[in-house]
Write a structure and sequence with these properties.
Helix content is 31%, strand content 30%. It has 9 helices and 11 strands. The two termini are 24 Å apart. About 2% of the residues have low confidence.
Length: 260
Amino acid sequence: NVEALAGSALGQLLLDSELGAHEARAQAIEALGFDPVTEVLGITVYGRTADPEPSAILVEATPAIDATIASLDDEESRPKGYRLVESEGRTAHFFGGGGGETYACVLEHGRNRIVVVADSLAHLHPAVDIVEGKGANLSDTDEGGLSLRGYKNALAFVETGEMNGSTSFAPASQILKAANGVSIRVVEEDDESTLFAMTLRTPDEKEARNLSDVLTGVIGMGRMMAAQQEELAPIADVLRSMAVRPDRNAISIDLRLHRD
């Protein structure tokens, strides 16, 4: 939720920090023709599998992006390799060159715009179908998509289904593979603290208790090591703030970070 993040204390801290945010923002404004901090409202990255490469990216923005889209009609200023592509009754913007291909569709969404971006037409069309209410998810199954609940005050959230086909999450891979799905949300509780809340969904209550015991043991070992090894001292407070609890066929893991 870019709009919420930009207006939060955490977002202002990031923008005012010495991480090059001001320079990056200025470069983005020059390249895009609009300020992404104020005109981009949200970014959703969709994937069909645990593959780190997304299937599609949806960007919700204000009408301020219309001028940038219209500028693509100018042959002299448009990016090299750009052209319009007609496919399945839709007009897509194609950006080629640089060793990659990108397709994009711009859709009206109330007063705002949604830009659907994908690396292929095969990924673009299902994503546009979802926005238009014609599709349930990006997979090739008939199952309904995940229920993406709106989290109050959430700056960002992650929702996944089963990840038992993934091998890219070591050393936590065995825990994640045992879960039926994962929910993560980042919430600013106040100007001084941020909550990272994770929920692991499990097949049954027994599995939830077992995984909870494993996680509690891992965190306990981490706390003990942080107390004994000086180089781990910076994460001691983080480990102490972690809370794990089973809740029927799910496990809740809360982590609170204080900005002092």
